[in-house]
């Protein structure tokens, strides 16, 4: 940038201001033996600070001053925009938005599955609602349902009406306990096997007295779900009930519990039941459904069961060959 005649003031890098007084001769330009350049006198704030500078040095001062002026203008524009946003309500809107978001997330955490708010709300509702339900008498509704269903079923020609009615009555009963041991469920299964095992291929015995079929075997086995690397809040397992002599009696139920909980509960299976399906349900299946519907806790006191001494209730008939 070349020095202009109308530019009278320069500012050095140290911030000092000098006035260009005028030319004061010339000097040999660095690197040249013949070429010379003008020399200017710069008058400082004090006489002791006066300077003599060459044309190139003076041009460098003016160029640096211009860069500083542009930089100052840029900083001023940034400051102006910041000031504008601070005063046009933008900050207030952002604060309001993030405050609403923060409160919403905090409330979501409070009332989440493990939140203290949800637990406290459940406790208060239990204190109010449960006593009301306990005081209510539901047996009269069961009697009415029994009466209506009996009338409907007796008016039809179905051969298995009695089975449907009995299964429905059992299913509508409230469980007598809030928790049950898995060993007791296996005992019920053994009774189910004794009553319903197919004796067609069983050997008939007659040692001393009445004839009977050979004893059969019932097995219970618990298989825990392998979660591998996946971390879950729940543990899942499958309880399998099997009879070696009659595969049709085999069944299984799925259980789950929280990782910090002790007792297990039935997983799924609370869907509505078509009345026609009641004819095909065994007493053991109805028993399991009743426990499920009543949210009965399962105490896993043992994870396997074996009984090889189950005598079928059905007896073989005498025959004389």
Explain the overall architecture.
There is one protein chain. By secondary structure, the chain is an alpha+beta fold. Helix content is 40%, strand content 23%. The strands form four sheets. It has a five-stranded antiparallel β-sheet, with helices on one face. The chain has a four-stranded antiparallel β-sheet with strand order 1-2-3-4, covered by helices on one side. A two-stranded parallel ribbon has the order 5-12. It starts with 8 loop residues before the first strand and ends in an 11-residue tail after the last strand.
Q: Quick one: how many beta strands?
A: 13
Q: Mean of the pLDDT scores?
A: 76
Shape: elongated
The main sheet orders its strands as: 11-10-9-8-13
Number of helices: 7
What would you say about this model in short?
This protein is of the alpha+beta class.
């Amino acid at each position: 940038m070349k020095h202009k005649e109308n530019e009278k003031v320069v500012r050095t890098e140290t911030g000092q201001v000098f006035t260009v007084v005028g030319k004061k001769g010339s000097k040999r330009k660095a690197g040249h033996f013949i070429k010379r350049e003008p020399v200017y006198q710069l008058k400082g704030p004090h006489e002791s600070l006066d300077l003599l500078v060459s044309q190139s040095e003076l041009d460098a001062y003016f160029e640096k001053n211009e860069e500083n002026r542009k930089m100052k203008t840029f900083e001023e524009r940034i400051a102006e925009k910041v000031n504008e946003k601070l005063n046009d309500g933008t900050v207030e809107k952002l604060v309001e938005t993030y405050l609403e978001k923060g409160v919403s997330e905090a409330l979501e955490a409070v009332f989440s599955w493990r939140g203290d708010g949800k637990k406290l709300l459940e406790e208060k509702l239990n204190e109010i609602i449960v006593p009301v339900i306990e005081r209510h008498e539901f047996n009269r509704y069961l009697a009415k349902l029994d009466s209506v269903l009996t009338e409907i079923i007796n008016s039809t020609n179905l051969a298995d009406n009695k089975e449907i009615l009995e299964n429905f009555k059992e299913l509508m009963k409230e469980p007598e306990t809030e928790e049950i041991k898995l060993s007791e469920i296996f005992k019920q299964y053994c009774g189910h096997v004794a009553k319903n095992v197919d004796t067609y291929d069983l050997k008939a015995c007659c040692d001393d007295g009445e004839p009977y079929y050979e004893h059969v075997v019932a097995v219970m086995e618990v298989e825990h779900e392998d979660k591998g690397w996946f971390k879950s809040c729940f543990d899942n397992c499958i309880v399998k009930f099997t009879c070696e002599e009659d595969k049709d009696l085999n069944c299984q139920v799925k259980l789950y519990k929280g990782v910090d909980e002790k007792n297990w509960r039935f997983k799924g299976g609370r869907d509505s039941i078509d009345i026609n399906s009641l004819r095909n349900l065994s007493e053991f299946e109805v028993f399991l459904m009743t426990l499920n519907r009543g949210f009965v806790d399962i105490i896993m006191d043992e994870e396997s069961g074996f009984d090889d001494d189950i005598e079928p209730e059905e007896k073989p008939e005498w025959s004389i060959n």
